Amino acid sequence: FPSHDNALKQVLLGQELTKSNEGWRSRPYNDTEGNPTIGYGFLISAGGIPEDVISGKRELTKREAVKIFESKYKEAQERVSAFIGQNRLNNLPEAKRSVLTDMAYNLGDKLFEFKNLQNAIVEGRLQDAPKEMKDSKWYGQVKSRGPKLIDLWNS
């Protein structure tokens, strides 16, 4: 089943991309928008973080974080499916799927505000997607993540 193994490997690479882009913090911190955050970019307000971690009594463990991450990554994949449609998503190369999933993980439902990006993808103008990513407040906020995702999109 080499194609299944390859597909799994690609999904795991996408997850590693997002973990790398988010960074890891075992203690609460404020993100670029001032929101209390922990782990791999988990908003504390979204729930699921143990109370004794939020209060500072102990650090979040990687084991706890992986469970939360996998759930949030799956939500991001579902968000991308809703954003461009499952069939279109299935037909995109894995690198582009990883880029969109990373954006969905980072942006949450704000992904749906990227109407020009959505239209470019839905209309098959994949070469226009990087311009639409760059032309956003998000691109300025995410520092090196934006150019990294555009490089991956164009690969």
Approximate shape? globular
- Main sheet summary: 3 strands, antiparallel
Which blocks of ≥5 consecutive residues have pLDDT under 50? none
What Rg, in angstroms, do the CA atoms define?
16 Å
Fraction in helix? 55-70%
Q: How large is the share of residues in beta strands?
A: 5-15%
Strand order of the largest sheet: 1-2-3
Between the first and last Cα atoms, what is the distance in angstroms? Answer: 26 Å
Number of helices: 9
Q: Give the number of DSSP strands.
A: 3
Arithmetic mean of pLDDT: 92
Structural class determined from secondary elements: mainly alpha
Question: Which series of helices and strands comes N to C?
Answer: HEEEHHHHHHHH
Describe the protein.
This protein is mainly alpha-helical. 63% of the residues lie in helices and 8% in strands. The chain is built from 9 helices and 3 strands, in the order H-E-E-E-H-H-H-H-H-H-H-H. A 3-stranded antiparallel sheet has the order 1-2-3. A hairpin with a 5-residue loop joins strand 1 (25-30) and strand 2 (36-39). Helix 3 crosses helix 5. The radius of gyration is 16 Å and the shape is globular.
